[in-house]
Specification:
The protein is α/β, with parallel strands linked by helices. The protein is built from 14 helices and 12 strands.
Amino acid sequence: MEKNMKFLVVRYGTVGDTVFLSVALRELRKAYPNAQIDALVDVVAMNVLRNCPYVDNFIKIEGKYKNILSYMKCFKQYNTVYFFKSDSFFSKVAYLSGVKNRIGFGRTEYDVSKNHFLTMEIPSGENRHVVDCFCDMLMQSGVPVNNSDTELWTQKDDDILIKDFLSSFKGKNVLIQAYSRIRKKDWLDNYWVKVIEYLINEKNANVFLCGGEKDSAAYDNLLTKLGGCKVLPVNISGKFSLSQTMSLIKYADMLIGVDSGLMHIAAAFQKSSILINGNTSLKRWKPRNENCVVLTKHFPCSPCCVIRNANNSCEHKTPECMKALTPDAVINEINF
């Protein structure tokens, strides 16, 4: 019976939520070790999950409406589709394709709409962690969940590349992610200057500035402010692929940064990390990592990203919740 079971998991979007998906994939595989489990993903999710041992096949999302017939042909293969990303288009495709079990997130306290194409709606409140919501979906569909820890998997070639890169540096290797795609999450540059100077001058650490290619110019500007460092940090933003960056985090000693996908990658590897958190809901997106120190200040408007667009929600150019987190608060948590 189990051999005839075919599951499709739908997930695309951010790195962090894709890391959270590792829990659901593992627990589903444990419950159905002989079933076929495939994943419908975009480029981001593909890069995060490409070495996942719990997925048999990855199906890449390439457009939507113009490829609806191809998607319908694909969906017809499966007994059950789990929507770990709310999506009216793909849930409609599953319905039109005759998939027996169509399971996904229903209404939230901020979304009163109902998805009529699902056979089972799972509540997804903003006060529940995303991982717990994913686990709820499995458990309410009859799949037991025994472990809610996230995990990740790296490629051997990436590990070799990163080990070789780090071999020329002596001492502790600390990664900094100073910038997010949502700029209201960012800390102050002059605060970063103090932390980086402390790491280099007092702790003799090697500091690497991490991020995408779009962050490179911001880091170049930050480097001009670091006149007090005996050596400068290494700006590696955009220099490594996402899968290589996963290996970099795996072999580094610490990550310090704002709320980002890299913080959740560090959590999956249980790496020592310090999260400087402003407008993000910790109830929903806190890294699942006992080795992560979370620094945050609660304001009456916190967390503003839950109730409205984070980039436009704060009247201040630099949010007061980020100003209130001083460099000393971070420095006091650096314990090597």
